[in-house]
Amino acid sequence: MGKGGRMLVNNDQQKTVDDHKLVRRVPHQKPPFTISDIKKAIPPHCFNRSLIRSSSYLFFDLIVCFLLYHIATSYIPLLPTPLAYLAWTAYVYVQGCFMFAVWVVAHECGHQAFSDYHLLNDTLGFVLHSLLLVPYFSWKISHRRHHANTNSLDRDENHVPRFKNTIRSYYHHFNNPLGRVFIIAFTLILGWPLYLIVNIAGRSYDRFASHFDPYSPIYSKRERAQIILSDIGVFAAGYGLYRIAAVKGLSWVFLVYGAPLHVANGFLVMITLLHHTHLSLPHYDSSEWDWLRGALATVDRNYGILNIVFHHIADTHVLHHLISSIPHYHSQEAAEAIKPVLGDYYHYDDTPFYKAMWREAKECLYVEAEEDGDKATGVYWYKNKL
Per-residue pLDDT tens for 7-20? Predict the structure, then answer.
């Protein structure tokens, strides 16, 4: 025993205690507070959206992207080959980070968190997302439904977990270190475009679903015009890239734009996946799900200095699911304000993202209903025993 009666523990024991805290299941019962209680805890100014302030962050991100492009295309070709390879690698990564920052601003436009002017928000979001090859209104509609049905096994729109009986037999061959490397690489590189094109990891529909199809079951008849407009935006951006490639070459376009875009898309997939994939988080079927419990079943993550670059979308995601219209420059203050209200319903994991991605790929393979005696409940938890 140490001073004050505290038991001394070695590093292995402390690691076990820390790991236990990370996998402590968050409460799944109806919380003793309401969304109104949460809003009352937030300082009123956090709900204010400033067009000037929001624009300043966007201009900064765009200026950094342009400066990185200028430096890369003007000076990297002057370097000797070994240094040039390293410089291009650094450029692709850093440019990808700031392209994702631009994506986050466009994402705020979709939530009407950029300014008080809806038409301006949608116009800007449409332009920015189109330049990033994202069909803006198509994504906005499905993303809105994700927020409206978070962690519902029946109605959530993305990162919908599998059931054990739906796992393909060949997946057993990937349930090993080498297989997980392949799955993680596949997810980060192709996850986002495949989600948009064929709705991979999205909600199951009785027929083909795509964010580019105006007749997709994801959308209603009255939303078709917006889907067509979104397609036009992506097509226009793609045509612009085609014209540039005709002059500069395809490899130049890929190196300057395509490779950084893959980095941005990889961060997008990883961040959203890790927000909703954790051993401590429940999912619900229709017998148990309600909006507040679903919105609470997410986790804040720590990306170090990238939290700032990414406008705190990763470390204040619990708040974002509760009140998505709060702009990112108020999110930290608002997130701190609601923690006393949420209590045990708030979950944070500061495991480095590369370790978390590996752990979640290993531990969170499917969900299974919690049992109450001999009866299964409508609350589901991640499992990994195939």
Answer: 333 444 444 444 44
pLDDT of residue 22: 54
Q: Is the pLDDT assigned to residue 233 strictly greater than 60? A: yes
Structure tokens at 295: 């919105």
Maximum CA pair distance of the chain?
A: 74
CA–CA dist 283, 291 (Å, integer):
12
Whole-angstrom Cα distance, residue 23 to residue 41? 28
pLDDT (0 to 100) of residue 283: 96
- Chain centroid offset of residue 371 CA: 30
For residues 151 and 294, is the Cβ–Cβ distance under 8 A?
Answer: yes
8-state DSSP, 43: -
Instruction: Give strand pairing partners of 35.
Output: none
Tokens of 158: 């993305």
Strand pairing partners for 301?
Answer: 349
pLDDT in tens, 47-98: 999 999 999 999 999 999 999 999 999 999 999 989 999 999 999 999 999 9
Rg (CA), the chain: 22
For the chain, first and last CA: distance in Å? 42
The three-class DSSP label of residue 367 is strand
Cα–Cα distance, 338 to 335 (Å, whole number)? 5
DSSP class per residue in 146-208? HHHTTTBTTT--BSPPPBGGGS-GGGGGGSSHHHHHHHHHHHHHHHHHHHHHH-TTB---SS-
